[in-house]
Amino acid sequence: MIKGIGIDIIELDRIQKSMERSGRLEERILTQNEKTFFDQLTNKRRKVEYLAGRFAAKEAFAKATGKGFGELSFQDIEVVADDNGAPGIKVRQFQDSTIFISITHSRDYAVAHVVIENN
C-alpha cells in the first residue's frame, strides 16, 4: 500500500548561486557519504546537478512522509546509488518501508519523485 508520494523541482541556477554565495549549502544538504562523492566531482556543472538532485530528492521524500522537515533533517536522508547507478534512499526511521525514487535533470532544473510504500 502506498504511504506517500512527493515531488520536488529546483532551479539549477538557484543552487549554483547559493553555492557561490556561501559555500555552505553542500554541508547542510549532503551526508558525509554524499559529500565524499561530491568532492570527487571535477566538473562544476556536474556538482551543481548533483547537489540540486539531492536537494530535490530529500525535499520530495519529506513531502511524501506528509510531515515535511519537522521531524527530519537533510542529514537524516541519504541518496545512494546501486551498482548500475540507479538512485535509492536510506532513512533510518523508514527501514520498514520500501522507497522508490527517480531523479532527473534538464538544462535548467532538477526534479525528484518519491513513493513510499508500506511493507
TrEMBL record:
Instruction: Give the location in the cell.
Output: Cytoplasm
Source domain of life: Bacteria
- Describe the location of the 4'-phosphopantetheinyl transferase domain by residue ranges: 4-112
Sites binding Mg(2+) sit at 8, 59
Q: Which UniProt keywords apply?
A: Cytoplasm, Fatty acid biosynthesis, Fatty acid metabolism, Lipid biosynthesis, Lipid metabolism, Magnesium, Metal-binding, Transferase
EC number(s) stated in the UniProt entry for this protein: 2.7.8.7
| Cofactor(s), names only, from the UniProt record | Mg(2+)
Which Pfam families does the entry link to?
ACPS (PF01648)
Which protein family is named in the record?
Belongs to the P-Pant transferase superfamily. AcpS family.
Protein's name according to its UniProt entry: Holo-[acyl-carrier-protein] synthase
Q: Which organism is it from?
A: Virgibacillus litoralis
What's the source species' lineage?
A: Bacteria, Bacillati, Bacillota, Bacilli, Bacillales
